[in-house]
Write a structure and sequence with these properties.
This protein is an alpha+beta fold and 126 residues long. It is built from four helices and four strands; from the N terminus they run E-H-E-H-E-H-H-E. The protein has a single domain, classed as 2-Layer Sandwich (Alpha-Beta Plaits), CATH 3.30.70.
Length: 126
């Protein structure tokens, strides 16, 4: 796979939004850093963001309300950047057989809020 030097070279991105109990912050951060290293080895740029503000301007809805996050939870957004959709599909196929990736996903599902869903979306650069 071709390595993406920065997000500006990517034409295809995938976002994942999740919420987790604040008490799981350090464990989740450690897991996310490990995932980022693994994904970058495969040429995928992996960026992680933590929602820093739960308020919005009048007429707008904050994402924390859209995912039903409580005051005891954090909202995390992962952004995976790919060269193109074909690159993304190749990466997903490769990772579906990767034991380290599967174990990481199992750990992830134990750290996010029980019963919550991971919101995902794939976007093409305009």
């Amino acid at each position: 796979m071709n390595k993406i030097e920065n997000n500006y070279n990517a034409t295809y991105v995938e976002f994942m939004v999740s919420r987790s109990p604040k008490k799981n912050h350090e464990a989740l951060l450690k897991l996310e850093k490990k995932s980022a290293e693994m994904f970058r080895r495969e040429g995928v740029q992996y960026d992680l963001f933590l929602l820093s503000n739960g308020t919005s301007w009048e007429g707008f809805t904050n994402i924390s309300k859209m995912v039903s996050a409580s005051e005891d939870e954090e909202v995390w957004i992962n952004m995976l950047s790919y060269k193109d959709k074909k690159n993304r599909d190749e990466f997903v196929a490769k990772m579906s057989d990767n034991k380290e990736c599967q174990e990481g996903y199992e750990q992830f599902t134990k750290l996010i809020t029980p019963g919550s869903e991971i919101i995902t979306g794939e976007f093409s650069r305009l």
